[in-house]
Amino acid sequence: GEDVEQSLFLSVREGDSSVINCTYTDSSSTYLYWYKQEPGAGLQLLTYIFSNMDMKQDQRLTVLLNKKDKHLSLRIADTQTGDSAIYFCAPGSGAGSYQLTFGKGTKLSVIP
Amino acid sequence: DAGVIQSPRHEVTEMGQEVTLRCKPISGHDYLFWYRQTMMRGLELLIYFNNNVPIDDSGMPEDRFSAKMPNASFSTLKIQPSEPRDSAVYFCASILSGGRGEQFFGPGTRLTVL
């Protein structure tokens, strides 16, 4: 089955950029997602990228996709203390399936 | 829309007791997923339904776990008998098929088995 790897922790200073990386094994994903989980809450979709794109920008968020290397990254510009949360990479399964495989999540800590 | 609703939000029970977790998906969504989240194993898919029919239950840890979806508005996850290692946060998520496949998550049920 799909395997998704992320580093577990990232610490950045407020105002700096954060980059969260993810590698995956299944190349048939149509959509690849980033979810955010705040303490005591469920996961919320943060952004996504379609598999035929290399980059997607959405305000402070930039998603980069390298399909050849099966590498996905999320960059948060001007990181704020409110960005402190756990971020999950979740490549979708191939066409016809709506299953997601989640990485273990990267806990982002923003230092004021 | 109220989003995905789960109840209870917290459950504390003793080993051996039956536990029932409940989920109401977003109206009109046709897929429903049950996940378990622990520090050690992360987020694990337990089972998912399409149009109330279980499609894949290979993630259900053992026979003590069962899930039902009697109608499009309601699903349950039952653990009988419960064990301390079942302590986790259980999430329900739903999807409307045909779109980009975004899963909408409920707030979760934190289960503690003493």
Walk me through what this model shows:
The complex is a heterodimer of chains A (112) and B (114). Chain A is mainly β and 112 residues long. Chain A is built from no helices and ten strands. Chain A has strands at residues 4-6, 9-13, 18-24, 31-37, 43-50, 55-58, 61-66, 71-76, 85-91, 106-111. In chain A, strands 1-3-8-7-6 form a five-stranded antiparallel sheet, with no helix packed on it. A five-stranded mixed sheet of chain A has the order 2-10-9-4-5, with no helix packed on it. In chain A, 35% of the residues are buried. The mean pLDDT of chain A is 92. Chain B is mainly β. The mean pLDDT of chain B is 95. Helices cover 0% and strands 54% of the residues of chain B. Classes of the chains: A mainly beta (112), B mainly beta (114).
Percent of residues of chain B in helical segments?
Answer: under 10%
Categorize the overall geometry of chain B. Answer: globular
**N-end to C-end Cα span of chain A:** 40 Å
Low-confidence stretches of chain A: none
Shape of chain A: globular
Q: Count helical runs of chain A.
A: 0
Query: What fraction strand of chain B?
Result: over 45%
> How many β strands of chain A by DSSP?
10
Q: Tell me the strand percentage band of chain A.
A: over 45%
